[in-house]
Amino acid sequence: MIRNVLKNIFTIISVLIALSSCKNKKAETFDALLTAKESRAFSMLVGENGLETIKLNQLIAQEYGQALHTIDQQELVFDSIINDIKKADIVGLVEGKEVQLEAINYYRSLKDLFMFSRKEIEQEKLMRSGTKELQYAAQDQLLVLAREKQIRYQQVYKSSEKLHAKKKQFEAENGLK
Questions:
Q1: 160 lies in a domain?
Q2: What top-level branch of life does the organism fall under (predicted)?
């Protein structure tokens, strides 16, 4: 009789360990996905050979069409990152949905910030090739755009803080750190 009770307890403990390890593996997989996407975005935006560096070199060379094309490529990368995070399997993960939503919001705000360059490039083109009146108007518009861009930076900072806080909660709840 004691043997049967111990056998049942051992079976229950084994099942609980198996279930909890599955959750941790799933959480680890989701966390690894977020880390990979962060690395991809970082390489694109800050890497020595990243798309942002390429775009800035094109702007220095006044190759505005090429720079706009590079922004299109950046947009595709952001869209890919966002879609991969949307598709992630988060069912059953504590704080999984919250982290997923914050990550999507963060990459959307980052995308908005870097896609904003299109407007700046259009004004830069006018400053380089337009009449004096167009050049002055473009300069004025660049000041307006700079203020708008500052708002986008603030949105990125807020999104980043929210993501970081939710990710810490997620890691704690799922035993990752």
A1: yes
A2: Bacteria
